[in-house]
């Protein structure tokens, strides 16, 4: 089913003084916004998968030597994580936070950031490490060792990187677009 966004045309005159450009609500941006409204979880999940795929391919392009080939299995793991876990989790997270703390003022923004850093961030990091390690065939014992080794350094780096991303997201981005901006932030 193709979702159709209503076309809105503006008058070619501005009280008879200045001509205005005729505008229509069409094109890829309007289609995407329509899909977010019609099928929010699916759209945000596919968006996360696409961004994670592009980010992983970019990462491999930058870090691999010319003799190495792309690790397409790794790219599929990242795409799958974005599609099945990150997209839906972010959808529910941002909607939950906006219901519990509906304002976008400065104090509320800092509250949202604090909850994100202390609750959601650690959960998502542990989930990412665990799922990725599991898909690579690591045992439960190896996954626990990975979490013990990688969680603290990751959380320290998160405390440096994520506050700015979260501030922008929570303060300025509408809830229905927060998954897009946050997934993009994940991929940087």
Structure report:
The protein is mainly α. The chain contains six helices and two strands, in the order ββαααααα. The protein folds into two domains: 1-38, no CATH class; 41-187, no CATH class. The chain has helices at 28-38, 40-63, 72-100, 106-135, 140-172, 175-187; strands spanning 13-14, 18-19. Strands 1-2 form a two-stranded antiparallel ribbon. It is globular, with a radius of gyration of 20 Å.
Strand content: under 5%
Output the strand order for the largest sheet.
Answer: 1-2
The class by helix and strand makeup works out as mainly alpha
Number of strands: 2
In percent, how helical is the residue content? over 70%
Tell me, rounded to a whole number, the average pLDDT: 89
Q: Which regions contain 5 or more consecutive residues with pLDDT less than 50?
A: 1-22
Q: The biggest beta sheet, please?
A: 2 strands, antiparallel
The number of domains:
2
Assembly type of the chains comes to single chain
Q: What is Rg?
A: 20 Å
The termini sit apart by 33 Å
| Basic shape | globular
H and E string: EEHHHHHH
SS summary, helix count: 6
Summarize this structure as a short list of keywords or feature phrases.
188 residues, mainly alpha, two-stranded antiparallel sheet, globular, disordered N terminus
């Amino acid at each position: 089913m193709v979702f159709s966004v209503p076309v809105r045309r503006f008058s070619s005159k501005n009280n008879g003084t200045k001509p205005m450009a005729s505008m229509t609500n069409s094109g890829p941006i309007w289609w995407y916004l329509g899909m977010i409204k019609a099928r929010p979880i699916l759209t945000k999940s596919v968006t996360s998968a696409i961004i994670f795929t592009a980010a992983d391919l970019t990462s491999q392009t930058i870090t691999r030597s010319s003799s190495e080939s792309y690790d397409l299995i790794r790219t599929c793991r990242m795409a799958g994580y974005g599609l099945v876990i990150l997209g839906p989790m972010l959808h529910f997270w941002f909607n939950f936070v906006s219901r519990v703390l509906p304002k976008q003022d400065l104090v509320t923004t800092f509250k949202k950031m604090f909850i994100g850093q202390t609750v959601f961030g650690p959960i998502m990091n542990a989930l990412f490490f665990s799922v990725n390690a599991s898909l690579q065939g690591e045992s439960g014992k190896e996954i626990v060792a990975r979490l013990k080794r990688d969680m603290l350094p990751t959380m320290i780096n998160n405390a440096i990187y994520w506050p700015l991303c979260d501030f922008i997201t929570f303060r300025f981005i509408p809830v229905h677009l927060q998954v897009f901006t946050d997934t993009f932030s994940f991929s940087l």
